[in-house]
Amino acid sequence: MTGTTSRLLDLLSLLQARRDWPGSLLAERLGISARTVRRDVDRLRAMGYNINASMGPDGGYRLEAGSELPPLLFDDEQAIALAISLHAAAVTGVGIEEAATRALTTVRQVLPQRLRHRLDTMEFTTVASRPGGGSPPVSPEVLIAVSTAVRTAHVLRFDYVTQSFDTHGSDYRSSDTTPEPPSPRRVEPHHLVMSHGSWYLVGWDLDHDQWRIFRADRMTPRMPSGPRFVRREIPGGDPEQYVAARFKGSELVDRWPCIGKVVLHRPAGHVRPFAGDGIVEDLGTGRCTLELGSWSWVALAASLNLFDTDIDVLYPPQLTDAFAQLAARNSATAHR
Question: How far is CA 106 from CA 26, 109, 122, 216, in A?
């Protein structure tokens, strides 16, 4: 029985590795007769695998998708990748945390001891990138509807909740402001992007005739979808870079529009953990330089004050002016 089980697993692994297998080649690879191959294929069919057979001298076998989910076979690296992905599913924002936990428990129970040990040594905790747990979860049905429209290039119709501060239709920042009533949208969907624990749709807004970014948790798709469309080229050609640029207040380039460099009168080791994407250089004598960016000069000056130390501006002059503007505001606040 052990030999038969092992042979079935080897046969299943071969069928998953390529689309078509001649029966004679399968028999040769497994070291068995063509008759035994036919019997083993029948055993796999009884387990739920949909295996088609073609007749004739060049006949063979093909593993097809079935109506039910049969037992799956993974190699070592695939099993570890699956377990880690399930463990990290809590920050995907899709509302599948409970299902992912149950799936991870199932996978871990059937892992060989050597793989279970590897997984345990990689145990980690997933933390949402946004303070407070990020955006509200997105239902899988919404993501499936959006992904389907992206894949088939059909116009997506949906109701969208816009925050009151959103004047550009690209509501990619979180906010505590009161949402406005949903408004109907018609969009050519191009890419579904996950960033910082939230899902975003990048698409061409047909009503405003421009590229926009929509948060998936504020979308309610309407059915049926609209007509097919011819895909446009996304600005810059890279959806990930396009979304990252918009996060930083830029249109196309994934870089902050305001970048400055200062000397902080603190050791580099005290600054690096809180420098984000800034560049820190150790000057010795308890000082370091920090090159950092932000969406405005005043915001950059304010963020540098978080280090609670003396600051010398190296460049540009706009940053020095921003410190003066910030100081005037703070002075006015202190004397009210």
Answer: 31, 5, 18, 30
Task: Output the pLDDT for position 318.
Answer: 95
State which amino acid sits at residue 328.
A
Residues 97 and 90: beta-carbon distance below 8 Å: yes
| Residue 160 φ/ψ, nearest 5 degrees | -130, 130
Read off the pTM.
Answer: 0.56
Q: How far apart, in whole angstroms, are the C-alpha atoms of residue 39 and residue 57?
A: 18
| DSSP 8-state class, residue 226 | -
Residues 242 and 200: beta-carbon distance below 8 Å: no
Alpha-carbon gap, residue 219 to 157, rounded angstroms: 10
Q: Does 224 sit behind a cis peptide bond, omega within 30 degrees of 0 on the bond before it?
A: yes
* Residue that the structure tokens 């560049």 belong to: 279
| Residue whose tokens read 């009210």 | 336
pLDDT for 156 beyond 60: yes
Task: Name every residue whose Cβ is closer than 8 Å to that of residue 186 and which is 6 or more positions away in sequence.
Answer: 155, 156, 157, 205, 206, 207, 226
> pLDDT tens, 39-64?
999 988 888 888 888 876 667 888 88
pLDDT band at 69 (very low <50, low <70, confident <90, very high): low
Residue with tokens 């002016």: 321
Alpha-carbon distances, residue 230 vs 185, 204, 223 (angstroms): 18, 11, 20
What is the rounded average pLDDT of the residues 231-240?
Answer: 86
